[in-house]
Amino acid sequence: MAIKPEKMQNILLPTDFSRNAFHALRYATGLLKNRECT
User: Fold this and answer.
1) Which InterPro entries match (predicted)?
2) Which terminus of the chain is more exposed, N or C, with fewer CB under 10 A?
């Protein structure tokens, strides 16, 4: 029996508009790239 992954409902991404924050944004969007979002 396969385990069904849970849907992510919210991602909180605080930012200070730095280069590291930009990379965090790209990482966060990558997490959701192939998932059904609500």
Assistant:
1) Rossmann-like_a/b/a_fold
2) N
